[in-house]
Write a structure and sequence with these properties.
The protein is mostly helical. The chain is built from 22 helices and five strands. Strands 1-2-3-5-4 form a five-stranded mixed β-sheet. The radius of gyration is 23 Å and the shape is globular.
Length: 451
């Protein structure tokens, strides 16, 4: 598992668009810190697939990404990813609850809510109008305190109208999500349980809240609506043992990395799946610097599931972080043989190749990974180093520029983009990539001068 930081805009075109609409200083600074792990993301993909299919979305095109935040929240900012805080994953107690959250966020995508909110943002004509739109989006994405601060200073009919529209979208997403769950054969009771947790997390008492300045319906109302749906449509969902397994696996590995090893050892004893218990213990031993015990546990997990690429990937991580380069390369190599399409595994394999003194091979592996996952800034850091080690300084510069741009560090991105453009053949594909970053940098500079 690695920690990755990127801008909420998370793409070069989005950065250019933000500069053109004078919002670059508002959003890139609000960065997402992600927890990237191939195994956990695969488990979440397995859990999300039936829900996304039911919503008419392609599971291969909508990623489920984990935010390094212990609060109880999930959100979407575009149609390509659903962001779930790790605190939510650890808080829910069943696969159905997590799938209900995914269904709600999928509804925002399927119902076109993200597109409409973006259009509202673009149509704002004044700085105050932009501030109100940003506050509403921040509130919808869970930025409660920041959004509240903006809202308190913006008592306008425009803000009230925007938030009323957002509340209507939230209610619509709840209704759609319940239908997705039923069509997918997943118990809608999970939605009732999730809203029951939210009901205990209201920041202010109902009597102190202005109902017209809320971005979401009251949680008590959402609980009643979810219960009414279950009562009306019934709950005839059959058990889904595969979902239970992948939920336990994702939650187990995540907790092993974010909780203390002592906590993990005490809880892992009750783990119903033997291989998951061994995996959790391997992580805890690794974090406690007990290499041989960690290897013993992960090897036992591999023996239980010999074709599981993700257990070999974890073994590679354990070895890599203990500077056992050749052994790590072998473990990652087996993981790639078992699953050659997983971007995070390919990226880790490339990192191991680079550490083992094989930069040319590392570039091939990491470029394949980059083509599958453009958001991975850790990968871009390793890729730029591999290009530099092979003397391809222009490519190293453009990759570095893209990494800084994705992290919202637009000034640093502009510096490296200019350097790349000076070294790459003019008009080539890499040169055009550098130009895209440089355009975003120039627009950001123009905005600063016009303030």
């Amino acid at each position: 598992m690695v920690i990755d930081r990127l801008s909420r805009l998370a793409s070069i075109p989005a950065l250019i668009l933000s500069a053109l609409f004078f919002i670059g200083s508002a959003l890139p600074s609000a960065a997402l810190t992600l927890l990237r792990d191939a195994d956990i993301e695969h488990a979440l993909t397995r859990l999300a697939a039936p829900v996304l299919n039911s919503a008419g979305l392609n599971p291969k095109r909508v990623r489920i990404l984990i935010v390094n935040d212990d609060s109880f929240n999930a959100f979407v900012i575009d149609s390509r990813a659903i962001f779930v805080n790790y605190g939510l994953i650890l808080k829910v107690s069943s696969a159905e609850m997590l799938q209900a959250v995914i269904a709600h966020e999928a509804a925002h995508i399927a119902n076109g809510h993200i597109t409409r909110r973006t259009q509202n943002l673009k149509s704002a004509n004044t700085a105050s109008g932009l501030g109100m739109a940003l506050a509403a989006i921040a509130a919808a994405a869970g930025g409660g305190q920041a959004a509240a601060g903006i809202a308190l200073g913006t008592r306008s009919s425009a803000m009230r109208s925007f938030l009323a529209h957002t509340r209507a979208e939230e209610s619509s997403a709840d209704r759609s999500a319940a239908g997705y769950l039923t069509r997918a054969g997943i118990s809608p009771q999970g939605m009732v349980d999730v809203h029951s947790i939210f009901a205990g997390q209201e920041l202010l008492s109902v009597h102190r809240q202005d109902p017209y300045m809320r971005s979401h319906p009251l949680s008590s109302d959402r609980v009643r609506a979810a219960k009414a749906y279950v009562a009306s449509h019934g709950d005839n969902a059959a058990p889904r043992p595969d979902d239970d397994y992948w939920f336990n696996r994702a939650r187990g590995k995540l907790s092993a990395f974010v909780r203390s090893p002592k906590w993990t050892f005490s809880r892992a004893k009750k783990e119903p799946y033997p291989d998951v218990r061994l995996m959790r213990e391997a992580v805890a031993h690794h974090r406690g610097n007990a290499l041989q015990k960690a290897l013993s546990s992960i090897n036992a997990a591999i023996a239980a599931r010999p074709d599981d690429a993700y257990y070999y990937e974890l073994k590679g991580q354990i070895l890599m972080e203990n500077r056992r380069w050749k052994e790590a390369l072998a473990a990652y190599g087996t993981a790639v043989e078992l699953n050659s399409s997983e971007a995070l595994i390919l990226g880790s394999y490339g990192r191991a190749q680079l550490a083992a003194g094989q930069p040319k091979s590392a570039i091939q592996s990491m470029e394949k990974a980059r083509a599958r996952d453009f958001r991975n800034t850790t990968l871009l850091r390793d890729l730029s180093l591999a290009y530099a080690k092979t003397g391809q300084n222009g490519m190293a510069a453009v990759v570095t520029a893209e990494r800084y741009a994705l992290q919202g560090r637009i000034d640093d991105a502009g510096l490296h983009a200019k350097r790349a453009m000076a070294q790459l053949p003019r008009g080539s594909a890499p040169w055009r990539r550098a130009e895209d970053v440089f355009v975003a940098f120039e627009q950001a500079q123009k905005r600063k001068r016009n303030k």
